[in-house]
Amino acid sequence: MAYKANVLVVDDEQPIADLISFSLTSHGYQVSLAFDGQDGVKKAGAEKFDLVIMDIQMPNMDGITALGELKKIDPELEVIIATGHGTLSTAVQSLRKGAFDYLHKPFEIKELIAVVERALEKRRFNDITKAIFSTIKPDELPRVIIDSAMRILKADEAFLALSGRDAKLSVAVSEGLDSEGERISRLDLCARMREQIVGGGGGVTLVEDPAADKRFSDIAGINGIKSAMLLPLIENNRLAGIIGLNRRDGEEYFAENDIQRARIFSSLVNLALRNANLYRQLQETQSQLIQAEKMSALGQLAGGLAHEINNPLSGILGLTQLVLETLPAGTQSHQDLTDIEKAVFRCKKIITSLLSFARQEKTRMEPVSMNEVIEETLTLCDRQMELKRVKIERRFGEGLPLVTGDFQQLMQVFLNLFTNARDAMPEGGSITVSTRLAGHWVEASVADTGAGIPEDILGRIFDPFFTTKPVGKGTGLGLSVCLGIINKHNGSISAHSAPGSGTTFIIRLPA
Amino acid sequence: MTKKVLIVDDEDMVRNYVRRALSSRGWTVSEAVNGAQALAMMGKETFDAVICDLKMPDMRGEEVVKNIKISNPGLPVIVITGSVSNISDPIVPGVSVEGFLIKPFGIDEIRDLLEKVTKPQAERS
After folding, report:
1. ipTM confidence score
2. Fewest C-beta in 10 Å: which of A183, A260, A329, A417?
3. Residue A291 belongs to some domain of the structure
4. Can you list the alpha helix ranges (DSSP code H) found in A47-108?
5. Averaged over A208-220, what is the pLDDT?
6. How far is B60 from chain A (nearest CA, A)?
7. What share of chain A has pLDDT > 90, as a percent?
């Protein structure tokens, strides 16, 4: 059988050691004995203990010294000092040295068990705090949170639901819930609990035997839940998610101390989620900085290179054309030189796009209407879209505030997005252009019905020279130029895609 | 009398094709490989136009153009360059030139532009 914890008892008086040992063993703990401080330190060095209960006055090494040694071996080891001749000063001294608590002999068994349980609870909390805070990868955090919640609150089932963009809760991770149906019934129960008990407010909420409670009994699939607990996760005064924990029939009801644990736990989780958020923001900022750095390095390189390449290129073009003038059309040589001429124009186009970075052109910022920018751009490419059987659907928000921007450059961005969308739909399709106000941003989205972008390349599409178009079709600079322009506007551009369901680009500019 | 144009560029290949493209259209083309040589030649001869590169080893093309414009304010100047990407870029601060071409440019582009900038004022559109 598994023990609740592994405890070391250190006392030079055998009868007392035996008594403690007996009491703990009968409460499900595994106990080892040591008869002085030195012996205790030696045993703690050889075996992993969760907890030590130790006398103060002992031969060879006293309890206070041994306490220091034990903490050196394992700083997280909890030590309870048990003393018969303890004065207040020794108690204070031991607490300063890191003891969890102290017991005055003679003590009652009940007292002993209570303090042992408290010490172990602290240890458990330490463990989960460590687990939660050492997990900063946002995608691993929900799993760690739920595993910890199960452990700390001894639940049979648990889930974490986070609110999405539409503020609707959906289960991010669950434990002990095997079917989608079960997860939905638990989520329904939680929604009803918030509504019925706290009126949508915060706070840990508890319900017993919900299936027999007429406020909840109509919810399908909640039979077998004995006790249900809900922990709200509040961020910036708004519900960011909930943790639901249930005990099934045959287990005990959640009790008052469980609610206390839950409160501490949910504040830990709130902190951890905020941490994870900050971490994600940090990473985003870092990658933006790296991107900016790359672009500026590329820009310098491009500026220098362009001159070096354009001179010989100009010679190739001019001389080719001079020879072309002397050749009759229709000959092989005439055809070959025409191909060379075309190749030069292709090179010229690539260099021109490349120079869009290097160009220290002043951006002309003025108040512009996002809808107008888009409408103007669409006028440019409407005919082209028609030819490619691409339908344009406009969903413009009305009464949007103006943004500060360079009309031409913003047009360049949208033109790029429209062209990419068109190329993503060789068989035709539709492009939905929407604008709306999203908080402090004016947001525009361009969604196509193309094949979508596989996840492994989605992260690279803004990289200079990254292209999936056939050689000669794209320079791989379009989107990186877009990113550069949007950055200059203090905005953001992002791409969302799932293979088979098209790609959506979202541009946000400060309103 | 044939019209005379001076082409200033350190790149042999560029001078070569520009000279041939223009002389086949009746222009007398002189060449200078750097700014100092260009200014020296202009002290001795009169030209109807100058085609000048912006980036040369001895003197920045901007300086050459400025000097030309100070001594011959009415002389049409075409600037050619390989290092900017857009006509709207300021070319020579404080000096306005009659024409501007980005390398690589074709023979017809330089022929047409030169004709345009050397037409008598009244005929220009």
Report:
1. 0.88
2. A329
3. no
4. 63-73, 88-96
5. 89
6. 14
7. 37
